[in-house]
Design brief:
This protein has one domain: Rossmann fold (3-Layer(aba) Sandwich). Helix 5 crosses helix 7. It contains 8 helices and 6 strands; from the N terminus they run H-H-E-H-E-H-E-H-H-E-H-H-E-E. The protein has a 6-stranded mixed beta sheet with strand order 3-2-1-4-5-6, with helices on both faces. Helix content is about 40%, strand content about 15%.
């Protein structure tokens, strides 16, 4: 058996502690700070949200991939329950303002996302996928992550959060430009179909979860890929699938 020692071991322990506290399936970090003292406007906003039904889960590959303006518009403008699922914690990224890399950077990126959700009103989720830097294809990503393991995590988040609509940031093709990006959309599409199937990952059902079939799956288009994309909001979304029971 191999044991980590020194600074690397401390970083692993810190990341493990953060993982046990925050994800893959918990939603906020409120226990790390004093209870919020909402003002009158915030109380009114929360009361208004009680009258709105509906939920949306946004799925991305890395911290900073998410469309924060869309999350804000959904959570605060449309007042629907909104979540963001980042497959990785960004531990394979770069750091231009500090020495932290690897696990230490993953801890920083995790906390950044948790804080961002406190501002935009969304809820944050993660999977066990490790960010190993640039990936040339979805196949390479699945080889290193373990396709079924990460798919299981995505299905679990869907069954936990129970979204009516799922939106992917990237297309499930090489247009995504990064293997992790492509893989995140592929997993979202597969999980969309499997979350409502009791034969898929049945161990989750014995743990208290129930099957859940989202109604629609959208891809969030972007002028990053299509420069001539129309500027109106509706033109930026493409319907990928309709689930069972959608009218």
């Amino acid at each position: 058996m191999h044991f980590l020692t020194g600074r690397k071991a401390l970083m692993r322990l810190a990341l493990l502690a953060l993982t046990l506290y925050s994800t893959p399936f918990t939603r906020n970090a409120s226990a790390q700070r004093p209870p919020a003292q909402p003002n009158a406007a915030e109380i009114l906003h929360k009361m208004q949200k009680l009258n709105v039904l509906g939920s949306v889960l946004y799925i991305v590959a890395h911290p900073d991939d998410e469309n924060t303006r869309l999350i804000t518009w959904l959570a605060n403008g449309k007042k629907v329950r909104t979540g963001n699922l980042s497959l990785t914690r960004g531990d394979g990224g770069q750091n231009l303002i500090g020495p932290e890399l690897g696990d230490a950077l993953g801890i920083i990126r995790t906390q950044e996302l948790m804080e961002a959700r406190r501002i935009d009103g969304g809820e944050q989720f993660f999977t066990r996928a490790v960010d190993f830097g640039y990936s040339k294809s979805a196949e390479e990503s699945f080889e290193k992550w373990g396709h079924d393991e990460v798919l299981s995590d995505v299905v679990r988040v869907i069954r936990t959060f129970r979204p009516d609509i799922i939106i992917t940031r990237f297309p499930p093709t090489r247009e995504a430009g990064h293997g992790h990006h492509e893989a995140s959309a592929i997993l979202a599409e597969e999980a969309f179909k499997l979350a409502g199937d009791p034969k898929a990952f049945p161990e989750q059902l014995t743990q208290g979860l129930e099957v859940w079939q989202p109604r629609r799956l959208f891809f969030n288009g972007s002028t990053w890929w299509k420069k001539d994309l129309a500027g109106d909001r509706q033109a930026r979304f493409r319907l990928v699938h309709c689930g069972r029971g959608w009218l």
